[in-house]
Amino acid sequence: MRHLRSHSLWLILAAIVATSLLPLPAFWIAQLNYIGLFALTTLGLVLLTGVAGLTSFGQAAFVGIGAYTAAWCALNLAWPPLVTLLLGVLITTASAWVIGRITLRLSGHYLPLATIAWGLSLYYLMGNIDALGKYDGLIGLKSLTLLGQEIGQGRGFFAVCWILLWLATAALTLLLDSRPGRAIRALKDGRQMAEAMGVDTFRYKVTVFLISAILASVSGWLLAYYQRAVNPSAFGLKWGIEFLFMAVVGGVNQLWGAWLGAGVVRLLDEQLQTWLPSLLGASGSFEIIIFGVLLVLILKYRPEGLWSWVRQFLGNQQLERTWDLAPPLPQRVKPERGDTVLEIRSVRKSFGGLVAVNDISFQVKAGQIMGLIGPNGAGKSTTFNLITGTLPLTSGEVIFNHHPVHGLHARDIAKLGLMRTFQHVKMISDMSVLENVALGAHTRGSCDVWSSVLRRNRSEESAIMAEAERQIKRVGLGDWVHEQAANLPMGKQRLMEIARALCADPSVLLLDEPAAGLRHAEKRELSQVLRQLQSEGLSILLVEHDMDLVMDVCDRIVVMEFGTYLTEGTPSEVQQDPKVRAAYLGTEH
After folding, report:
1. Interacting residues of 514 by C-beta distance below 8 A, sequence separation 6+
2. Which of 43, 67, 110, 429 has its CA 20 to 30 A from that of 350?
3. At a CB cut-off of 8 Å and minimum separation 6, what does 126 contact?
4. Span 309-320, mean pLDDT?
5. Which pLDDT belongs to residue 7?
6. Whole-prediction pTM value?
7. DSSP class of 48
């Protein structure tokens, strides 16, 4: 996310202050005020939808809560604006927490549908309450007053609105470039990888939903005092869709795209309403047609939004190196070589009437590379998922470092030091190699959202980055530290995934087909890395189809067939076993 450095942020703030002092016409000040209001709401939507991957059409409803709270309290209780802001944020937070706890457990198209229902219900609720003026709304508010000074609707309001927008953007920039920020960015690619790194995905989803709602509520508070009136029409589904449209146009996964999208849509909408009727000789909402065509073109030719052009101009800037003198992260006590670190006892998994894993038992010793092999469909990956908590056991036990871990969430097992990679590489493609690997150290940090926003996480963040760089070099990717992860060849991506798991300081590393899709030279490089890790005392459980690699690096091998335990032994013993040959090659009748 780091495309504008800290000095650029201060330059933007200086430009905001300078603009408020320029002799601009009142019309353009009004336009900029609306752009700032819309950008503040869109900013939360970028965080929610573009960064965290949670599509919502209910953002306008939270704008309405902030606006109606301010208007009602100001008109009926004569409360000052800052008090109405606080109350609006509290009501918004409470309602967003309840809605989030319900809707964020949904996935796919259910979440957007649920937020549409929420937005519509609030729209009709506001329009049918007498105390809120029904569909006529509330009118007669006084202009915004802060610290005894009337702000008005001109340059003073512009300064307040845009400085709040700048503060929100700077805070989210700090957040996303931190430990919790990397966890939030991991949500978009699904929960499996993030949970395997120790991330409580549901808690972070709720957190993002709350932040997004609060930003919308603040925008609604400003809107009420700016227009000096509120009514339900501004908070219906139409505006929920328009905010999402602004995010897509500007760049749905870029914070600064919220600024650009709000500006382009607002100015274009204003101009089209003037130009099109005179051009076509008829009145009507023709601008909607233009916006529809524009959206299709952007999704087709510029899916990352208009901000992607600005990114190309600015270039992809590297993280500022601040971790050379960082203290090392605390390390867990490792088991003695030869101790049993992982024990699988009669593990069974049934899917209805299908038994995928049938009473499998084996042990992994400290400092050992254990292979788990078998033909396609033997149940190897399912066994992996049972060990790591991705799937629940039907019966049996998983004992890690002499403690039962079956029944625990995947994130809780990861915190104990049992880390894994995936059969298909899972990564955050728009982050650098360094940031991807740093995600693996999530369980070794403790700084939360507030610590990140207030920059109280700098010591921990430096230590995490130093550890991530060390693990990257450990697997031989030292020349790729700042490269975008999506640009790595497949072999390097798999090594990056191993480095990410190592960043958690695991006692046991589970590798799910790490050689899949690799060329011969890349497989040889992988073998060297695995031997190096073993020499450093790490225990490895390896699922792999490449028999040359398995026979080369494994100390012992467990063979599965149709979900059952077939045999176990050293590589030479397994190669000589006729049952293994029959499983792979078949037998004559």
Report:
1. 421, 494, 497, 498, 526, 542, 544
2. 110
3. 64, 68, 132, 232, 235
4. 71
5. 73
6. 0.91
7. I
Torsion of CA 88, 94, 96, 98, to 10 degrees: -160
DSSP label at residue 537: T
> What is the Cα gyration radius of the chain?
28
Q: How far apart are CA 120 and CA 387, in angstroms?
A: 44
CA dist 51 to 108, 147, 378, Å?
16, 36, 37
Burial class (CB in 10 A: 0-12, 13-18, 19+), 106: middle
Q: What is the pLDDT of residues 247-258, one digit of tens each?
A: 999 998 899 999
Q: How confident is the model at residue 3 (pLDDT cuts 50, 70, 90)?
A: very low
Note the pLDDT of residue 418: 93
Instruction: Write out the H or E segment, with its range, that includes residue 122.
Output: helix 110-126
Q: Are 364 and 539 in contact (CB under 8 A)?
A: yes
Beta strands in 366-513 (DSSP E): 369-373, 395-400, 403-404, 418-420, 508-512
Lowest-confidence pick of 72-86, 252-266, 276-290? 276-290
Residue 156 has pLDDT above 50, yes or no: yes
Do the Cβ atoms of 52 and 174 come closer than 8 Å? no
